[in-house]
Amino acid sequence: SDDAARRLLDEHPESAVARRALRDIEVQARARQAEGLLREAEASLAGGAASKAAELLRQAEALGRRSEDLGRRVAAAVEADRARAEDARVRHVVELLQSADSVAGVEAYLGLEEGIRARVRAASPSSLLGWADEIGWWGTGSRAREVGQALHALSQAVDAADRGDSDAVLDLLIPFEEVVGKLRRARQLLAV
Question: I want to staple 5 with a disulfide (CB 3.0 to 4.6 A). Which of 22, 42, 73, 182 is the partner?
């Protein structure tokens, strides 16, 4: 019927009936396409692919078909996925901070949003976090790596000071004085 309406319109471009028939066919085709997208969204949601379901739902809505119930369920699943991903990021950073690679832990911490940093602080007793917060620099890249290395050196300097090794304290802190020089604890150690 789509082809017949198009042929009729080609043969009689002035035909209002042919234009209306073609428009009706196109509306029905969009409705079928939207229904198919909603079915695919349901299947994606059932399969645990919330972000794919959300995209399919957006496509169906762009075609004029809405499903409030499916929209609510997709939004809840997307939020649950986001929360799981955030939990995993928190666990990962806490594990890094507890490992021998605390530099990577600080580096990862500096790249987090404030809300997630707060969760890491609540989950980790690491003094490195307090020092990172005191420095107040947030981001990623080479500067984050430098801050991580400086705070790791400060931690080692605290241990060296506890052992009474003032030479090791200076050796550890002087290369990072620009980064840790603002920190009260570093200033105390450098003043010895």
Answer: 22
At position 105, the amino acid (one-letter code) is G
Would you say the C-alpha torsion 173, 176, 181, 182 has a positive or negative sign? negative
Output the CA–CA distances (angstroms, integers) from residue 127 to 121, 143, 182, in the order listed. 10, 20, 16
pLDDT by residue (tens digit) across 40-95?
888 887 888 888 888 888 888 888 877 787 777 878 888 888 898 999 999 999 99
The 10 Å CB-count burial string (b at 16+, else e) for 147-170 is bbbbbbbbbbbbebbeeeeeeebb
Query: Which tens digit of pLDDT belongs to each residue from 15-25?
Result: 787 778 778 88
pTM reported for the whole predicted model: 0.68
The answer to whether 180 and 154 have CB atoms below 8 angstroms apart is yes
